[in-house]
Write a structure and sequence with these properties.
The chain has 16 helices and 13 strands. The chain is α/β, with parallel strands linked by helices and 468 residues long. It has one domain: TIM Barrel. It binds 5-hydroxymethyl-3,4-dihydroxypiperidine (IFM).
Length: 468
C-alpha cells in the first residue's frame, strides 16, 4: 500500500490521542460481517439467508441493493487480509455466514465453506493478527425463518448446534468467539418494526425473538465450552446511551422504559442472570412472560470471558403515550453523520463505565464504533475523510477516559475495515476506513486508515520505549 499525501495531512491534524493512555497490551482492531462484505451469494454451496430474501424484495433495501457481490471479499480475501495487515492492526473481528456453512440451518457443515474460513483464519495467523469470530451477525438461514425464525424457541437450539459445529471445525485456528452481534437489531429491527430482515412488524414477536436470542447465546456458550475448553467466549451488545428529555418524572420513566427495551433486555440476563423489574414492567405483558421458561435464565447467565460493547449513539427519550412502550427518541445533538446519527464521544465513556459498574467486571472490548460520512475520491485519488478522523479521535479519547475511570477496557475495533453493504441502507452509507469502489472493487485506504495505523504504531513505539 502506498502512503502518499494523507500522511502529510496527518501532521497538520496533530494526529493522535495520547497513546500512553492505553494499556500496554491494548488491542487495536477493525471489524466486518460476512453478508456485508463477502458477496458470492450463490457460490460454494451457500444457501439463502433472510438478508438475501429481504434485499431481493422490491422496495426493502435502498436502491434495491443486495449483498450478492458486496466487496467480493469471498474472492479477494487474500489481498484483503494483506491490506488489513498493512494497516497495522493487531486484531480483526469477522463473522462467519451461517447460510454458507450450514445452508439448511442444521446438520453437517459445508466443507467448501469450512475451507474458505480456515484459509482466512490461517492467513490472519500468518500475519500475527488475532481473529475474533462472530458466529451470528444477522444472516439466519432462510429455512429457519420459514420454520418460524427467532420468535420460535427451536431456533435457539439450531444456533447452539451451529456454534458447536463451527467451533469444532475452526477451533484450532480461532480461539475467541462472539456468539451474537447486537441481538437488539435482530429482534427489534427484524421482527418489531420490519426495518431489517426478515421484515416482520410485530412487537410481541420481537420480544419473543429477543428472549430466544438470549437463550441461543447461553446454549451456545455451554456448547462452545464443551467443544473447546480453552476458548474465550462472549456476546456483543449494542449499548445506547439514553438520556431523558427533561427532568419530568414522565420523561425519566420513558427513558427507563427505552433502556429496558434496548439495553437491559440483553444485558440483564447475560450478566445479572435475571430480567430486572424494569424489563418485566416494560415488556412482561407485551410478550416476555409468554416465552421465559424455568431454567432459561440459568442457561443465559452462563459465565462468559469478556463483554463486547458496540456503541453508536446517545439518544434523548421523551414520554409519548401514543407510541410503542410510550416513548419517542431523537438524536442527542444535531445529526452530523450521513446516517443521521449524532456525534457525542462522551456517550462512549458513559456506556463503558455503566456496563462496568452495573453489569459486569469482565474485560470489555469495544467491538464496534464508527461513523458513515459522504466520502469521495478527490482529484489526487485520495479519500480525505477528516470527519472520520475527528470522530475516531474523539471516541478513542472517550475510551481512554473510561480506562482512566477504572474500566478494564482491553481493545477497540473500529467499524469498519471496508466500506460495505449497510443493510437496509444498501451501499449508500460508507463506514469503512478503506474506500471500496463497487464497480471495480478497487480499495483505497482513507485518511482515517493512515491515521489509525499511525496511532497503532505510536502506541507500539511507546510500549517499546517504556520496556527498553
Ligand atoms: O453495519 C452495522 C453492523 O453490521 C452492526 N452494527 C452497526 C453497524 C452500522 O450500522
Amino acid at each position: 500500500m502506498t502512503d502518499p499525501t494523507p500522511t502529510t495531512r496527518l501532521a497538520a491534524e496533530e494526529t493522535v490521542e495520547r497513546v500512553d493512555r492505553f494499556p500496554r497490551d491494548f488491542r487495536w482492531g477493525l471489524a466486518t460481517a460476512a453478508y456485508q462484505i463477502e458477496g458470492a451469494a450463490f457460490e460454494g454451496g451457500r444457501g439463502p439467508s433472510i438478508w438475501d430474501t429481504f434485499a431481493h424484495t422490491t422496495g426493502l433495501s435502498k436502491h434495491g441493493d443486495t449483498g450478492d457481490i458486496a466487496c467480493d471479499h469471498y474472492h479477494r480475501w487474500q489481498s484483503d487480509i494483506e491490506l488489513l495487515a498493512s494497516l497495522g492492526v493487531t486484531d480483526y473481528r469477522l463473522s462467519v455466514s451461517w447460510s454458507r456453512l450450514q445452508p439448511s440451518g442444521t446438520g453437517e457443515l459445508n466443507p467448501v465453506a469450512v475451507e474458505y474460513y480456515r484459509g482466512i483464519l490461517a492467513g490472519l495467523a500468518e500475519r500475527g493478527i488475532r481473529p475474533l469470530v462472530t458466529l451470528y451477525h444477522w444472516d439466519l438461514p432462510q429455512p429457519l425463518e420459514d420454520a418460524g425464525g427467532w420468535p420460535v424457541r427451536e431456533t435457539a437450539h439450531r444456533f447452539a448446534e451451529f456454534a458447536i459445529r463451527v467451533v469444532e471445525a475452526l477451533g484450532d485456528v480461532a480461539n475467541d468467539w462472539v456468539t451474537l452481534n447486537e441481538p437488539w437489531c435482530s429482534s427489534f429491527l427484524g421482527y418489531g418494526n420490519g426495518a431489517h430482515a426478515p421484515g416482520r412488524a410485530d412487537y410481541r414477536a420481537a420480544i419473543h425473538a429477543a428472549h430466544h436470542l438470549n437463550l441461543a447465546h447461553g446454549l451456545a456458550v455451554a456448547g462452545i465450552r464443551a467443544a473447546s475448553p480453552g476458548a474465550s467466549v462472549g456476546i456483543t451488545n449494542i449499548v445506547t446511551d439514553i438520556v431523558p428529555a427533561t427532568d419530568s418524572p414522565d420523561d425519566a420513566a420513558a427513558a427507563e422504559r427505552l433502556d429496558a427495551a434496548s439495553n437491559r433486555i440483553f444485558l440483564d440476563p447475560v450478566y445479572l442472570g435475571e430480567y430486572s423489574a424494569a424489563v418485566w414492567d416494560t415488556l412482561g405483558d407485551r410478550g416476555l412472560t409468554d416465552v421465559v421458561l424455568d431454567g432459561d435464565l440459568v442457561i443465559i447467565g452462563a459465565p462468559t470471558d469478556f463483554a463486547g460493547v458496540n456503541h453508536y449513539q446517545r439518544v434523548i427519550a421523551s414520554h409519548a403515550p401514543d407510541q410503542q412502550i410510550q416513548v419517542t427518541e431523537r438524536p442527542a445533538e444535531p445529526a452530523t453523520t450521513s446516517f443521521g446519527w449524532s456525534v457525542v464521544p462522551e456517550s462512549l465513556t458513559a456506556v463503558l463505565t455503566r456496563v462496568a459498574r452495573e453489569f459486569t467486571s469482565l474485560p470489555l472490548y469495544v467491538t464496534e464504533n464508527g461513523a458513515s460520512y459522504d466520502d469521495y475520491v478527490d482529484p489526487n485519488g485520495d479519500v480525505v475523510d477528516t470527519e472520520r478522523v475527528a470522530y475516531l479521535r474523539g471516541y478513542l479519547g472517550a475510551a481512554a477516559d473510561a480506562i482512566d475511570a477504572g474500566v478494564d477496557l482491553r481493545g477497540y475495533y473500529a467499524w469498519s475495515f471496508l466500506d460495505n453493504f449497510e443493510w437496509a441502507e444498501g451501499y449508500s452509507k460508507r463506514f469503512g476506513l478503506v474506500w471500496v469502489d463497487y464497480g471495480t472493487q478497487e480499495r483505497i485506504p482513507k485518511l482515517s486508515a493512515h491515521w489509525y495505523r499511525r496511532l497503532i504504531t505510536e502506541h507500539q513505539e511507546a510500549v517499546a520505549n517504556t520496556t527498553a
